[in-house]
């Protein structure tokens, strides 16, 4: 079982892919509404990288888990986890709006 708030990159490679987060015992995505580069940096930090070099969305709509956990992620750049950022849990997003990130050391 995964810990609440665990994140992973899927459909890409070790450094680039769709961001998925484990909440309420299921994997889901983050909607791109409000998605900014500082949010991508926090995601990469949480994954153990030094920074982000890409913050985009919609590159991997196929095989998405079908659950979108939240939107309007609002990070300040000091968070160690995206769960420390502000976000909204109600949304009007679809799978092709899931965020992607590219991380770098």
TrEMBL record:
Keyword Signal attributed: yes
Superkingdom: Eukaryota
UniProt entry keywords in alphabetical sequence: Disulfide bond, Signal
Domain SRCR: start-end pairs: 7-104
Entry annotated with the keyword Disulfide bond: yes
GO cellular component: membrane
SUPFAM superfamilies from the UniProt entry: SRCR-like
PANTHER family reported in the protein's UniProt record: SRCR DOMAIN-CONTAINING PROTEIN (PTHR48071)
Listed name of the protein: Neurotrypsin
Organism: Holothuria leucospilota (Black long sea cucumber)
Taxonomic path: Eukaryota, Metazoa, Echinodermata, Eleutherozoa, Echinozoa
């Amino acid at each position: 079982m995964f810990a609440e708030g665990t994140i992973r990159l899927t459909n890409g490679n070790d450094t680039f892919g769709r961001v998925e987060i484990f909440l309420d015992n299921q994997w889901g995505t983050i909607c791109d509404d409000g998605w900014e580069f500082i949010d991508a940096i926090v995601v990469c930090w949480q994954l153990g990288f030094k920074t982000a070099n890409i913050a985009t969305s919609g590159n991997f709509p196929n095989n998405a888990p079908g659950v979108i956990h939240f939107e309007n992620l609002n990070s300040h750049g000091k968070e160690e986890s995206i769960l420390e950022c502000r976000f909204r849990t109600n949304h009007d997003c679809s799978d092709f709006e899931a965020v992607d990130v590219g991380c770098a050391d």
